[in-house]
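Reading a protein record of the kind used here takes only a little practice. Think of the row as the fold of the chain written in a discrete alphabet. A record is reproduced here so that you can trace the correspondence yourselves:
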Amino acid sequence: WTESEALGQSGEIIFTPEDREAGAPEQEIETAFINGRAPDERFHLRRDGSRFYVSGVMTLLKDTGGNVRGFAKIARDMTERIEAEKALRGKEMLQRIVGAQEDERKRIARNLHDELGQQLTALRLRLESIRKTCEDTELCGKIDETQMIAKSIDNGVDFLAWELRPAALDDLGLFAALDKYVKEWSHHSGVTAELLASKLKRIRFAPEVETNLYRITQEALNNAHKHASARRAEVMLEKRGEQIVLIIEDDGKGFDVKKKTNRSKGIGLIGMQERATLIGGTVEIESAAGRGTTIFVRVPAAPTKRRRSNEK
């Protein structure tokens, strides 16, 4: 409201319809009259009808003779603070969800490796023992086929457990985990892929940074294979000043970044942005039809440490 628009009007104009109906303006005046002041926090209305949250105090005004002259209200717009608190709560909730997901991934991966993996190993050893004593040609052929199936299942379980939570990420760090992932992913997908990050071989970042950058890379490469039909992909990881920069590039069919339909088709772009936000970073996507896709992830470089020189 401008001064000329507000002069002469009732103070009720800044109250929301529901507050006016509930008698909030009158209650505030009554409290100020009795107590001398009436602190309050609530939504008020702007001239255009939009709402904003305020923290204010209505004060009783008296002249030198003690006669009531009116009331004055001073209010501070708290919208930014409320939005910031809401965003913080959302981030904390997302951190808890992502943390729970990682813990569950780790648990499932461990169970797959320790229980199902051991059973499959025992099965393969038993089949190998039976094969050595087999004398019937037809039966031996069937055992050979069964051995191949068991080996394929065993390899599949290992790959699944590794995808869920690679031990290298916890034990050796981001570079080692990415190096193995890019090679294994390339082997399973048939897409030529390379990791360029030799200067970071011995550097460890904060666990949450390593985990989220690893997951972003995982999602980006899977998108390149499943959605972009890429033939080649490249992953670059480097430290530039106070930032860690992760770049994932592919030569796939690309897409129109500006189209919301592309950004919400469940291809993981939102998930990447959420993970980057969790560690104080940003995601930038460059793509166009027929020109491939490049994803830039920039995050603050948390305190790092180098491995001792005697570690391989």
About this structure: The radius of gyration is 31 Å. Confidence is low (pLDDT under 50) at residues 305-312.
